[in-house]
Design brief:
- It is globular and about 85 Å long.
- The chain has helices at about 1-25, 30-35, 55-60, 100-130, 135-150, 160-170, 175-190, 200-210, 220-225, 235-260, 265-285, 290-320, 320-325, 330-365, 370-380, 385-390, 395-400, 405-415, 420-430, 435-445, 455-479; strands spanning about 40-50, 65-70, 80-85, 85-95.
- The two termini are about 40 Å apart.
- With about 475 residues, it is mainly α.
- It is about 70% helix and about 5% strand.
- Strands 1-4-3-2 form a four-stranded antiparallel sheet, with helices on one face.
Length: about 475
């Protein structure tokens, strides 16, 4: 219900703002909202040739393609004049996001089709893990901890192994693998959900822990920083781990208090100590490496573990072929069957993703996002927050809505202010330490047709806010 209302507010307010801007003269056309593409110049006016200043008219007439770019208008730098069909079209600024129709197209071609491929492959592997018995063994191993965190989940339930693989993929920055495992976990938890239209306690806890974004190997962030010529691309690794870890603990505590979980459980304490020890050990090892060593280690560890999971699954399935025979199938046929289920899941979530991304597109292109961002930056600056921090806030604000959008802001931030600036580093931490909350809600709950997400959205947004505040303190402390 909350997600539905929020979606409606974004949609209606964005459209209303655009229409008001058009009739008030602040916008010249609505075409870019419908058909425009990201980074395309925006048409702000159209005049006859004799209506433009003389020096511009002369320049246009003498230009080979009747097009000139000047920087004479302070409010609209890099203004482009194009003379065509007896009129001069004036463009200024670039579009922040794809328009409505291009977003529909890119959602299918650039997001859903690749996601279908990931789902098909990893759901095929999951089917092998299920039939071979590997997922059952993993669930038995981790049940003592998971039954404390998820009291409503029966001991040794298959969802435990799926959630474990999802968390592991997130830890290692393997987004393409984390989503299929997570969707399988939601599907498994839905089987024991007494109210199929309402999110269960276990589903909410899983979603909030997943969305808190605990990451040990920030492979993609390191890659972006290396491309931006950072002196030490991996220097944000420790701040990212600290920030995302605090976010995860916050998510666990907030949801745990709501669900009255026993935090004094010995198994929970041991698991937490083990996790902290693993993080400290990893940091100590990485810290003694030089720049090349850090880049080599971080770029290969995740890939090696993923390959290891694939190899283990195939070898274990080979030795357990009798179980496949007992199920009247073979290893390959079981993989194909799982892949088919993955494709069906992808088709199911497509409308949910499409609806959310179109709303976000309208929200960004309408100009409302920039206005809200400026208000928040102004409020922070009046509180004494430095400009280096306020310059990075758009990434933090956009991250819950769009991973691709915030990634674009991140790259632009590093290009504008420098990868080694506080703004560039803080932007990297923002990008790494949180999830695309609205996208995740749409995908995961949409995959099992959950209509009432209860307090999941509010909790996830609160955790995002905690991560933002933590990132600012950690970045200021480190850099």
């Amino acid at each position: 219900m909350v997600l539905s209302r929020f979606w409606l507010v974004i949609f209606i307010s964005s459209i209303a703002f655009v229409v008001i801007s058009l009739f008030s003269g602040n916008s010249y056309t609505l075409d870019f909202i419908i058909n425009g593409k990201k980074d395309d110049p925006i048409l702000i006016s159209e005049k006859y040739l004799n209506q433009v200043p003389v020096f511009i008219k002369d320049s246009i007439e003498s230009a080979p393609d009747n097009t000139i770019v000047i920087d004479k208008i302070a409010s609209n730098p890099d203004t482009t004049y194009v003379y065509s069909a007896n009129t001069v079209k004036i463009f200024s600024g670039v579009q922040k996001s794809d328009g409505l129709l291009p977003t529909c197209k890119s959602t299918l071609l650039d997001l859903i089709l690749p996601l279908l491929a990931y789902l098909a492959f990893f759901c095929g592997l999951m089917e092998l893990l299920i039939i071979s018995g590997a997922s059952e063994k993993l669930a038995k191993l981790l049940s003592p901890v998971f039954v404390k965190v998820f009291p409503s989940v029966p001991k040794n339930h298959p969802s435990i192994s799926y959630m474990t693989l999802n968390f592991a993929a997130n830890f290692l920055g393997l987004d393409s693998a984390a989503t299929p495992f997570g969707l399988k976990a939601m599907e498994s938890l839905q089987e024991i959900n007494p109210d199929k239209a309402k999110a269960s306690d276990a589903q909410i806890m899983f979603m909030c822990l997943h969305a808190s974004g605990l990451t040990l190997i920030a492979t993609s962030i390191i890659g972006y920083r290396a491309a931006a010529n950072a002196t030490n691309p991996a220097d944000v690794m420790l701040p990212c781990i600290i920030t995302s870890f605090i976010g995860t603990i916050a998510a666990f505590l907030i949801v745990g208090i709501k669900q009255k979980i026993n935090f004094k459980s010995a198994s929970l304490v041991i698991a937490l100590i083990t996790l902290i020890a693993a993080i400290i050990g990893l940091l100590m090892y990485v810290n003694h490496l030089d720049i090349i060593g850090k880049n080599y280690f971080t770029s290969n560890l995740s890939a090696l573990i993923l390959v290891g999971i694939i190899v283990f699954t195939l070898i274990f399935s080979f030795f357990k072929e009798k179980k496949f025979a007992a199920a009247n199938t073979t290893v390959f046929e079981a993989f194909v069957s799982g892949a088919n289920n993955g494709v069906k899941t992808g088709v199911t979530i497509f409308p949910y993703v499409l609806g959310m991304l179109v709303a976000i597109s309208l929200f960004r292109n309408s100009g409302l996002f920039e206005i809200i961002s400026e208000w928040i930056a102004f409020a922070f600056s009046n509180m004494g927050v430095s400009k280096e921090i306020t310059d990075s806030l758009p990434i933090a604000l956009l991250r819950p809505f769009s991973s691709a959008g915030s990634r674009g802001f991140l790259i632009d931030s590093m290009n504008t202010f420098g990868a080694d600036s506080l703004t560039g580093r803080l932007s990297s931490i923002f990008q790494c330490s949180a999830e695309s909350t609205f996208y995740v809600i749409a995908v995961y709950f949409g995959s099992v047709n959950i209509k009432n997400t209860r307090y999941a959205l509010g909790t996830m947004l609160l955790v995002d806010f905690i991560c933002v505040i933590t990132a600012i303190f950690v970045a200021t402390w480190f850099f």
